[in-house]
Amino acid sequence: MPTPTAREQEPSPGNSTARPGQTPSVEPRAWSRTAWVDRFALPIAVTLLLICTIPRLPPGVCFGDAGDLQAAAATLGIAHPPGYAGYVSLGFLLTWLPGVSPAYAVTLGCLAAGLAALALGALMQIRLGTNAWIAAALTLAIAGHPRLWVNLVVAEVYAPSLAFVAGGAYLLFKYVRLRYRRDLLLAALLVGVAFANRPPVGLALPAFGLALWLGGRRTGGKRPSLLRDIVLAAVCLLVPCLYSCGYLYVRDTAATPCNYIEHYNAEFGTLPPPDAGTHAKLQRLAWLTTGRQFRGLMARGSGGLPGRVHWLTNQLGLKHDAAFVIAAIAVAFGLVFTYRRCPACAILLAGIALAAAAFVCRYRVYDTAADVLPILFVGTVLVGVAVSPLFPTETGWWRRGVAVGIFLAACVWTVYDARGRPDPAAAADATAFVRTADVGTLPANAVVFSSWAESLPLRYAQHVLADRADIRIVTAGPSRWIALAQDYAGPPGRQPGPLYLTERIAVPPGYSLTPYRNLWRLESPSR
Questions:
Q1: How many whole angstroms from its chain centre is CA 141?
Q2: I need a surface site. Which of 48, 69, 109, 321 has the fewest CB within 10 A?
Q3: Whole-angstrom distance, CA of residue 522 vs CA of residue 509
């Protein structure tokens, strides 16, 4: 029988069979050291989550940011800052799925991204020595976290961001252990996609770079080869960024149906028009990608830091001191064990969590934001590693039996708890609102003044469900509707159409409001 090659062997986690200057022998697959029965744990967990989440998905377009992502993907538009060019492009490909509406296809894509991130976290635990059944049980447990649950059932940008970061971390971990360049380049590409669409990911880039350098040096990588890998990884990292900038530059036109820059400028008029030349388009691009609209949410100095830290711990579910202490101890032990088994992986995971925490403490995120997901991901992995001495990958029948029992208990809890979890999809679903408004049958050249949340499903209905380019939907706060209505003179060469509002407001003397379906028709003195 031929002797196995170095890449077909695998030492115990934390051990190395390599001489100094050599690459240690490592496993080519996460499952090569597990019993065949353990391979069913993660597929069962993911399937159970699918069964619990699919019936809870909104059937169509949504209000708010979810509707913005759906409408932009269906029309190759530009979403809210920083534009999410990569996510919109991938979502546009999903809209070609047969048998489902474009909005529902985007929702399915976000669900798949969230489940992929959970699966990657479980695979990292398995590679770091945790029994597969325990890793799968932790996957089910963390899926019930309110922040993660919301992003599984509603189309949002946070689940794709987490999936790309988790994919990059997992592949970089594989590269450090296996030294396959393709893993590194794909990891850099995935992290680049996350960074190009979610700039706060850039705070974790130093951790990725340090992990790459440290991992390459500790596994005996030669300096010229390691430097070449770093350069190639940097190129792969920049490719998605260049694509995003190019996409936003090209699609920033007045003819793009769902263009956030144009919608913002229609209300405030602080940006130059897109047809004012290259300088104007670059100015609009910089405004969008840097999130200049939300600069006021950035905290200045250390004032209020304790309050932001308290908000962060509450979002993580650590409202009680006992829960915080237990979680901190488990994460600390997991980080120590991870460092002993793979120092580069420990640095990478710590960097991802610290980057997310720094952003949340620096930026006053909204209550519905899910920038804490990377912290939850890292915490779950480290907790799994912390219990790996009790339930290692290679274990006897009785420990495996206990692990299976814990997994079955997690399955029962998931099924039972899922029925009582909040239903964010019900509040986000705009299907009934769009059906009642029936944008396709509005009078010619109609103008609808709407707040941000309701304007997005209306735009989706206008451009995807009905071809009504003559209708104009103006996004603005209700306090500005009357002023904008007074200034509106209709499309060039066409008579101004009737005006509609998405909610009832107090109108000045001479104006009147008439109910029209679930809208309000505004009659002004000048008409």
A1: 19
A2: 321
A3: 12
- CA-closest candidate to residue 11, choices 24, 28, 29: 24
CA atoms of 506 and 191, how far apart (whole Å): 49
Ordered strands of the 447-450 beta sheet: 472-475, 447-450, 499-501, 519-523, 512-516
Query: 9 CB contacts (<8 Å, ≥6 apart)?
Result: 17, 25, 26, 27
Q: Tokens standing for 38?
A: 């353990």
DSSP per-residue codes, 42-59: HHHHHHHHHHHHGGGS-S
C-alpha 507: how far from its chain's center?
A: 40
Q: Are residues 151 and 104 in contact, defined by beta-carbon separation less than 8 angstroms?
A: no
The tally of CA atoms less than 13 A away on the side-chain side of residue 396 is: 3
| Domain 431-523: assigned CATH number | 3.40.190
Give the strand pairing for 447-450 and 472-475.
parallel
So where are the chain's domains? Answer: 35-253+297-420, 431-523
Question: Could you give the 3-state DSSP secondary structure of residue 1?
Answer: coil
Return the residue matching tokens 């590409």. 189
CA-nearest of 246, 249, 312, 310 to 277 is 249
Closest to 178 in 3D by CA, of 341, 32, 348, 6:
6
